[in-house]
Amino acid sequence: MKNIFFIGIGLIGGSFAIDIKKSNSKVVIHGIDTNKNHLKEAQKLGIIQQKAILNDLENADLVIVSIPVDATVKLLPTILDKISDNTLVVDAGSTKDAICKAVEHHPKRRNFLACHPIAGTEKSGPTAAISGLYKGKTNIICEVEKTTFKLQEKALKLFMDIGMRIRYMDPVSHDKHIAYVSHLSHISAFMLGKTVINKEKNERDIFDMAGSGFESTVRLAKSSPAMWTPIFEQNKENVIETLEEYINNLQHFKELMQQDNFSEIFNEMENTNYIKQILNGIN
Amino acid sequence: MKNIFFIGIGLIGGSFAIDIKKSNSKVVIHGIDTNKNHLKEAQKLGIIQQKAILNDLENADLVIVSIPVDATVKLLPTILDKISDNTLVVDAGSTKDAICKAVEHHPKRRNFLACHPIAGTEKSGPTAAISGLYKGKTNIICEVEKTTFKLQEKALKLFMDIGMRIRYMDPVSHDKHIAYVSHLSHISAFMLGKTVINKEKNERDIFDMAGSGFESTVRLAKSSPAMWTPIFEQNKENVIETLEEYINNLQHFKELMQQDNFSEIFNEMENTNYIKQILNGIN
């Protein structure tokens, strides 16, 4: 692989670009972005070597699409139209069903690999791009059987080189599971931030009293609305279901408090402490 | 100060003990704990030099009470009964109103300083105690005017020596504000953990798909139920109020999704991004 094109050169694309260039200094990283400032910053930071446009994609060995998921759904067919027969296209979207559906009948479907690298920070843009973002992180690959063998192999080598773990899943299951472990966390953090901001008009007081616990719980409320709005839209049914369960659990907790049933409050928390084992990967 | 007694030698007390000993090697740290294992571990780890019992408190220059807040309310009058006229007693509880009320008429009220050091981790016990836990962190002091000048001064020096920032507040305001920036975050994390555990029976799948975002949002769900149940009980009214607002905000978000009003979903998130400025302490 020599010519690698990034469509969207923010946190996700930029961090990929940095590590791919590190693991193979001969590649040339080309950047395509509707945000001219991002493109300029990415070039200045050395994340990309060349600015490019969509018509240049015929020269691409690999295209990485890392833009909001609504833009991916719209643009992906055009990208596949423009590439050569041997080009691999991967995406990095947090939803997979709508993206896979958008190209299911495309004549170049076999050039595309649907991916969700589960990594990121609450920051955005090329200045947020960092080396090592993907090391040890999971990359969920969907409908792997719909991609040609040769390009599957190329993609796997790429992800292995930057230290990712691979998991295979169908897009419907992906969207259902990810609603719980990622999309719901974002809403929970955003609404926690909103609740505190609404209540505490004197920000200085919040800041002084907010410990590291609040900071970590609310961290995702710093995330980009431009990235997250289309994710919630595309995964609407699953997200609403998780939200309903979350609200019911909060409501139940509140009722236990109103009933002064603190032994049950204790049990609720003790049962949930089990999350320690889960997060440690221990049974 | 020579003889410092800790009542409760877990994460909070233990971390204080380590840094106090560091900043003044001549002090002798005495530990009192109903948990004999904790006491043994604390001695083994060098966090305390001596095991002690409540009757030894007459020899204390300083007593730091770092036990669950229900135990503090019960034990604090007895502690004040047992100390000498020159002993300073400070607590570290996450609620302040009930604790201040428990000793408001005690003849030794002026020996007590009500404190809430806003620091901690989701871990507990003496093995979780670390040096530097309090550096740069805020210590909220309540009803400072009810403590004698000389002991106020001693306490301030102690907190300054380990790098804490001091803020003064009345206990009612403390409990109201802390419900938003600390107590609510814990419930939000516990119920997020519960929702995901209930839904995803195959824990391996959660672990594989959970990124750093989920991990940070759910982190507080690892916290100790023995510590948090009495906090919620003592701050019941404020916590229920914050929970109601939080649930209403989540409900509103869900309704916007059901109405496909994603431009308003965008606005909700964009407005909440303001948390960045707040957490950076910038206006």
UniProtKB/TrEMBL annotation, chains A, B:
Sequence ranges assigned to domain Prephenate/arogenate dehydrogenase in this UniProt record: 2-283
Residues spanning the membrane: none
UniProt KW keywords: Oxidoreductase
Cleaved signal peptide residues: none
Keyword Oxidoreductase: yes
Enzyme nomenclature, EC number: 1.3.1.12
InterPro entries registered for this protein in UniProt: 6-PGluconate_DH-like_C_sf, NAD(P)-bd_dom_sf, PDH_C, PDH_N, Preph/Arog_dehydrog, Prephen_DH
Keyword Acetylation carried by entry: no
GO molecular function: NAD+ binding; prephenate dehydrogenase (NAD+) activity; prephenate dehydrogenase (NADP+) activity
GO process terms (BP): tyrosine biosynthetic process
Protein's UniProt name: Prephenate dehydrogenase
Lineage: Bacteria, Pseudomonadati, Bacteroidota, Flavobacteriia, Flavobacteriales
